[in-house]
User: Fold this.
Amino acid sequence: MKDKLVAICLIVIMILNIADVLTDIQLEIPLWHILEEGIIVLLSSALALLIILDMHKRTKRLNVLVNSLKESEQKVKNITKQFRDIRHQYFVAIQEQFDNWKLSESEKEIALLMLKGLNFQEIARIRNTKEKTARQQASSVYAKSGLEGRHELSAWFIEDFMSANMSDLSKSG
Assistant:
């Protein structure tokens, strides 16, 4: 906005000085005075042109950035949708494994809450049960799954991802 105001002021100065030069020529004012005002006209014209060209260049750059931002936002939307799809597929895979282990609905809920990183006190509060009940159901999950504890349970569900990533790293290295 400030640049536009400066450019407009310079254009007004240029127009007024042109009018003054034309008047001075008609009044037969000394040539040095007319040249002096002519230089002011040229300088104000050049500065106004530079400012206008710079504003145009910045506007183009801004449009490029706006388009780039829109493209980035679209990519984020696509990634977010892909992430939601993958998260859903992962949840389905976890549920299938719970079914393979023949976990009850309560045990499935306990196992999911443990996978999310909640402790037994938090699990009991969420499920409106006693902490001892949550611990007993967790023990049942471990027994049915053949796993030794919460860490093995978590590791069981991420081990394949980690193995795949580690093999990808070793291939690229």
In short: Helices lie at 2-26, 31-100, 105-115, 120-127, 131-145, 150-172. The radius of gyration is 37 Å. Residues 162 and 168 are 10 Å apart (CA to CA). The mean pLDDT is 88.
